[in-house]
Each structure stands twice: as structure tokens, then as C-alpha cells.
Fold these 2 entries.
Entry 1:
Amino acid sequence: MTEEDPTTTLRRLRSSIDNIDAALVYLLAERFKATKQVGHLKADHGMPASDPAREEQQVARLRSLAEQADLDPAFAEKWFNFIVAEVIRHHTEAADSR
Ligand SMILES: C=C(O[C@@H]1C=C(C(=O)O)C=C[C@H]1O)C(=O)O
């Protein structure tokens, strides 16, 4: 079997990376659409922006999923915390504009 040219391999891998990045952007957009609705619901009903107990459950679940998927669980937790910080910022903005 002939080996693939390195330039061709790089192009092929980058094409896959581009598809994955596009999927991640769409997935994140969907997640923020849902969390923004949660933010308005909380603001309308005087509920606190953050829910540490829920976050703790999510971290445990995501760490376990990351292990199964051969992804660093510490990275999964860091990524989750980064996203949640932005969600809380949106929730606080929603509450302040009520
Ligand atoms: C979206 C919510 O609000 C916050 C954001 C969370 C998230 O982005 O997953 C989880 C818990 C809350 O701190 C929620 O309460 O479900």
C-alpha cells in the first residue's frame, strides 16, 4: 500500500477539524439558546443565577463521560466551568434588566 503524501494527510485532517469546529459552534449556540431561556425564567421568578448543586452533578457526569471517551476529565471540567461562567454572566444580565 502506498503511503499518503504528508500534505494530503494534513489537508484531510484539517478538513475533519474544520467540520468538528463547525459542529461545536452549532452545539454551543444551541446550548446558549437553552441557557438564555433558563436565565429569563430565573429572572422572572426571582431564582438565583447559579445553582452549585446542579453544577456539581454536571461536573461528576461530565468527568465520567470524559473518562469513557478518553478525554482528560480535568480538561472537561475546566471547559464546563468556562462555559458556566458565561452562562451566569448572561443570567445576571437578564436579572439586572428586569
Ligand atoms: C442553566 C442553569 O444555570 C446555571 C448554569 C448551568 C449550566 O450552564 O449548565 C448549570 C447550573 C446553573 O449554575 C441551570 O440552573 O440549569
Entry 2:
Amino acid sequence: MAFLSWRPLTMKLENSITVRNNKCWISDSCQSLGFPVLTKFPSTLWIKRYKQQVFLCRKNNQHCNPFLIVNRMDIYDTTLRDGAQGENISFTVIDKLRIAKALDEFGVQYIEGGWPGSNPKDVEFFKRAKQELHLCRAKLVAFGSTRRKGIRCQDDVNLRLLIEAETSVVTIVAKSWKEQVINVLNVSLEENLAMIEESVRFLKEHDKEVMVDAEHFFDGYSHNASYALACLDAAIRGGADVLVLCDTNGGCLPWHIYETTSSVASHFGSQQRIGIHCHNDMELAVSNSLSAVYAGASLVQGTMNGYGERTGNANLISIIPTLQLKMNYNVVGSKLISLTELSRWMDEVTNVPHQPSRPYVGDCAFAHKGGLHVSAILKDERSYQHIDPSLVGNRKRMLISELSGRGNIVDKMKQMGIVTDSQLQDPEWKRRIQGILEQVKSLENKGYTFEGAEASIELMIRRSLNNYRSPFELLDFTVLTGNKRVYYAVGESNNILTHGVYSSETFRNESITQAIVKLGILETSNGACPIERTRCFEAAEGNGPLNAVNLALKKALVRVHAPLEHVNLQDYKVRILDNESATAAVTRVMVEFYDAETKCVWSTVCAHSNIIVASVQALMDGFEYALLQRLPACFIASEGESSEKSAVLL
Ligand SMILES: CC(=O)SCCNC(=O)CCNC(=O)[C@H](O)C(C)(C)COP(=O)(O)OP(=O)(O)OC[C@H]1O[C@@H](n2cnc3c(N)ncnc32)[C@H](O)[C@@H]1OP(=O)(O)O
Ligand SMILES: CC(C)C(=O)C(=O)O
């Protein structure tokens, strides 16, 4: 067995030992990982390594039975280099600095910043990083390639720029597939080996920690294992610290990765660090990376959210929690709870839309829709969740739709704080819940969709309560829309540029839209109980029907409830549901609102054959929800007081 011999635990290592779930964890880079650190280990503690694992034992124990096993695993982020090779991804130097800072705070061990031999932006990044980037945990890595064919390392611009980047770690890509060496590099097999060995040695002579990314390693190994291994041997002769095996084309299967990595690990022995770099061309990059870890790799390269060339790289946002929660590697410690925030922030910086179905961090990752699922989860959270979402900073969501059962409605009512466990036993409440469920199913059948319109669901539930009185009623509304011909003053029309053509029109057409609304609004006295319903009559002009009604409604409501001034319409989506009926089709309208003061966002939905009616109802619901959020107590009638039902138009 290739055990390293026992040696005393150094102070440095001692400080990095942490305990969690009755297991002891160690971080080789001596980072504080946020777990409770044992205050003092006995000085009799000895340590040794075997296959990327760390064993601890007491010195006096003759047999040295290890009582603690600690695994080492490093995360190497290449978002700033390989991630930037993804289509439509382009980082500024400032973006790169911000991302590197965020990755460091999150706790990855290596951050590949770019390829200084590629472009001036990356040169500037490394220059600014020296002054501005004070990394606490991670090591910054400069990326490049082996020297060009037929020249000395000291004459190779790419290697020189790697040294000038002044990072402590350098990674170079080396060819390891025989055919590629012949067809692409166009050099002899011996010259490629020399390029690898000499380049690594040159970098080691400059005191760098050197990783060699063996490009196309798995394909190369399948075609000619001995040459692929010879490339790694050349890297070792040069002094490489980590050999990174790459599935460059993303075409390998997990068991292929496992077998090849196992062979390489046993070829080089347990002391040699092996890394893995996978691409996602068959959607297997995460699985392949984990297979390599299972086979002995102790460094995983990948990118945030899987950005990268073609279909992307191995997604670290999935790999990190899997390593930590399922495979017991402590990679980022307690920082794991910021995983969801980091993933979404990266999407914003990268200008990539959030993908709700992303494992662990997506909006849908813990969203439960089916009635059976929700009912089971309410009894046992583990029923349909592989982890507690809060471990990765995400949250469970129960959706309400035509696929719901009573459980979905009960959960929503509990969240809203309007039903207690004992009330749930009451037949009257049971009937009410059943009624709401049936209303949801019937409205969805008419074209509503309540997913993504939680405000409408809340209102429906509130309106079902005996003591609810709506904050306002829409008594009448009228929308006028038409066209107005506007004549130019004499001389004004000359040389008017329309669509790039000069013409001498004497008038232009302008569309006009006006809305008139009459509301009965409950007034509140100092935010307390409503005192009376005030009639308000308002009109507004807008650039379209929805805009005009929105302005008129808001004008009327603000007269009584000034804070509604901050409520704005943020998005408006329309979908025709029955294409075959053409203009007689049902239209579904979803409106998103934003309160600039409270920063809350909410959505409402309505479906109707008249698009204006659907829009007005969705707007009213949005304003009603805003008022309920601000003055929840005001619209509950006290006992004995007569309650008024909602302002529903339909
Ligand atoms: C698998 C990967 O993702 S590796 C990283 C890939 N990333 C990138 O290519 C992005 C950055 N690249 C660049 O900016 C440019 O391609 C540069 C600056 C690196 C090179 O640009 P150019 O000098 O114009 O060369 P070009 O890109 O056209 O061709 C690549 C050259 O590098 C050679 N090359 C390829 N791999 C290696 C290697 N591992 N070691 C040495 N030379 C290599 C090729 O043989 C070719 O040289 P040749 O034209 O003499 O045959
Ligand atoms: C340079 C290496 C790491 C690479 O991107 C690949 O082989 O896919």
C-alpha cells in the first residue's frame, strides 16, 4: 500500500482542522471554512495521506489505527477563461475583478483569471489584479499553452507573459492525443513531449505551482494510451504539480472517465494530484467530473453556471453542493448557503437569463406543483426534496394550479397566516378550502394560470373569507381609443424626414387613448379602520388602453392612499389562448407590479375574451394587493360589522 509514513501534525494543519457531523475535516490550504474549529488538538496527533485522503492517529497508538479520515478536494474555477469562451459572454476587466472577488469570498481554491498571451484585456486584468485584488482564500491562476514548436521557452511570448502575470499558479494546455499532435500541432511526437517538459520546467524555475491541462486526454488515451501517458510523464519530469485530464470534446461517458482516471491514478500513485476538466456536449460534464473524483481526482475544474465553449463546461454550481452534501468533501464550508445568490448574481453580470430549472439554485429546483407532492411534503419535507433547500440558499415553493390538491391551498393559507391547524378541522373551513380549490381549477380551465401570479391567489383566498372587505370597487370604466390627425403649421412640414425619406407632408397621425374610471374607495383614518367609501371620478390619457386605465386608476387611488404613488406597472404579458377562434379568442393577461418604496414585486392574472376587461381586472387586483400589503388590518371587518365582498369585475 502506498501510504505515506506517519508524521506529526503541524501547527499549520492543526489550525485548519474542523469538525462537522462527528467527522473531522481538513483544508490543506489552511482556510477557515466556517465550521467550529477544535480549539486544541493533542500534540500527540500524527497525520498521513493515502489516495487524497488524510488520516489522523494518536502517536502512542502502536498500531496507528486512524481515527479520523479527512478528504481533500479543490475547486478550480475557469469562468474567467473557459467560461468567457462561451458564445455571447464577454467580460470587462472590471467584471473580471468583481467575479474573482466574489469567487474568493465564496471559497473556491483556484481562480483562473485568463490567458495573458491571448489579448490585452487579460494582460490588464492580471496587472490590475496585483494592485486591486486582495484574495483571502483563493489562488489566482494565469493560463497559457506549452511553448510553440521549434523555439526555446525563454523566446516564447506566451510563456513570458505567463511569468509577467505574476501569479503563484500557472496552468498550461498540452496536447496529449497523438493524432492531434501530428495533424494540428504539426510536430513530431518527440517535439510535443519536449514542448511539455521544457515549458513546465521553465515555469517551475520561475517558482510557479504548475498545472498541466492535458487536452483531449480521454480521447487520446482511448486511441493510444501509452502516448497519452507519455505526455503526462513529460509533465511530471518537468515538475508539474497537478495533472488535469480533459474531456475536451465532451464526448465521454462517466464509466469511461472513471476507468481512465483510475488507471492514471494508479499509474502515478497516490501522491500525484490529478484534476479533471469536462465539457458538457452530452450533458454529462457534472456526472463525468464526479466520476473522476470517485476514481481519485482531487481537483475539479469547471465554471459558474456551466458557462463555456459550445454547450459549456462542467457546472460548478451543481458540482460544489454535490461534493459537499453527497460526497462529504468540505469544499466551501458554510459558504454553501450563498450558492443560489452567487449563481443568480453571475447570471446578472454575464447578462444571461436565469434558468429556473437549474438544479440546486433554480427558481423551480424546489417548486412543488402536483397535489400529491405538496400533500406529502407538508407531512415530511424529504418526500420530494433530495436536500433541505436552505443548505444552498434556495427555498421551497408550493405552486397553485389546476393540478393542486387541498394541501396546496392549506399551505398558502398558512403562509398568509389566515388559518390555524385547529381551524383546519372545522367543517366550515374545509368547505371554504374546497371552494377555493374548485375555483382555481375552474378559472384555469377558462384560461387563467396562477403559477407566477401569487397575488391573484392571495386575493382569491382573502375574498373567500367572511370578514374581508375590498379596499375599493370599480363602479364604471370607459376606454376610448382612436386616431387624431395633427396638422403642421405653415412651413413646418417642409423637409420632414420619415423612414429616411424627405417628404412634404402637411399632417401626421397620432393615436389617442383616454380612460375614465369611477371608484368607490374605502378611506382609512390614520391607517386604522376604514371609515367610509369615497367616490372618485378620474380620467387620464395614455399611449395605449392599458396605460390610460392604469394612470386613471392610480390617480383616483392616490387621492385616498398616497403611498400607492410608488406602485408601478413593470411588465405586461398577453397570450391568446385559443388561436382557432382568432379575434374571438380568450386572452390571458399577466401584469407585474413593483413598489419602488417597499421594493416588492408581485403579479396578477386575468383571462377574458375582451383584452381590455382582462387587463383592467389584472390592474385592479394589482392595486388591491398593494393596499393589502401596506394596510392588512384595514380591510378586515370586525365582528358584527357587515363585510363587503371584493371588487371583482367578472
Ligand atoms: C481546449 C481549450 O479550450 S484551449 C484554450 C483555447 N482558447 C483560445 O484559443 C482562446 C485564446 N486564443 C487566442 O487568443 C489565440 O488563439 C492565440 C493568441 C492563443 C494564438 O493565436 P495565433 O498565434 O494567431 O494562432 P492560432 O490561434 O491561429 O493557432 C493556434 C496555434 O497554436 C498552436 N497550438 C495549439 N495548441 C498548442 C499547444 N498546446 N502548445 C503550443 N502550441 C499550440 C497551433 O498549432 C497553432 O499554431 P500553427 O498555426 O503554427 O500551427
Ligand atoms: C485547456 C483545456 C483545459 C480545455 O479547455 C479543454 O481541454 O477543454
